[in-house]
Amino acid sequence: MVRAWFMDDESTDQRLEHQRNPPEFLDLDQLFKFTGVEYFKINVPTYDSDGILEQIRKDRGYSYEDEITCSKECLPDYENKLKNFFTEHLHTDEEIRFVLDGSGYFDVRNGKDDQWIRIEVVAGDMIVIPSGIYHRFTLDVKNFIRAKRYFVGEPVWLPYNRPADDMECRKQYLSKMQAGFAA
């Protein structure tokens, strides 16, 4: 099960689990309310036959998928890629990740007061990060994650580093946050 918590605004050590002692954990409803991030639990051994993931893909219009493995052995230019993933950015489309193996952290900004919320993902976790939210990704100390990525249509994976507040997707995200996210 995914864990999420508020973290300090620290960017010097991206692999720290959390800096607050003890951390202020959020449940899934709070995570959605504060950020719009959605969560699905998927059974990894049966995801390709039980119909759950297929129904989510159909309901949400995810028509394209690929798979990424982040590790020193599998990811070309590993150190630079991790630095790029950890640079605060947003996208014009949702970022959908289904973790098949390994683990890592997605950090998202709480739209209300711009605090970082760290989301730990492990095998079976699927998260949907809304377009227009500032976020970043890093591995944990295991330095390994394998995940499926989903897109509506052809993938557009172009990060826009902060500040990108004038982008339409950012304005729409903030508007949705002020109105309250609806499931």
Blueprint (SSEs and pairs):
Elements: E1 3-7, E2 24-26, H1 28-35, E3 38-41, H2 52-60, E4 64-70, H3 78-86, E5 89-90, E6 95-109, E7 116-122, E8 125-129, E9 135-139, E10 145-151, E11 160-161, H4 168-179
Antiparallel strand pairs: 1-2, 1-7, 3-8, 4-10, 5-11, 6-7, 6-8, 6-9, 6-10
Number of helices: 4
What is the strand content? 25-35%
Q: Please state the overall shape, judged from the principal axes of the Cα atoms.
A: globular
Flag low-confidence runs. Answer: none
**What proportion of the residues is helical, as a percent range?**
10-25%
Instruction: Report the sheet with the most strands, covering strand number, pairing sense and barrel closure.
Output: 9 strands, antiparallel
Rg computed from alpha carbons, rounded to a whole number of angstroms: 16 Å
Structural class: alpha+beta
In whole angstroms, the N-to-C terminal distance is 19 Å
Mean pLDDT: 92
Describe this structure in words.
The protein is an alpha+beta fold. It contains 4 helices and 11 strands. Strands 1, 2, 3, 4, 6, 7, 8, 9 and 10 form a 9-stranded antiparallel sheet that branches. Strands 5-11 form a two-stranded antiparallel ribbon. Strand 6 and strand 7 form a beta hairpin. The longest helix is centred in the C-terminal third of the chain and has 12 residues. The chain is globular, with a radius of gyration of 16 Å.
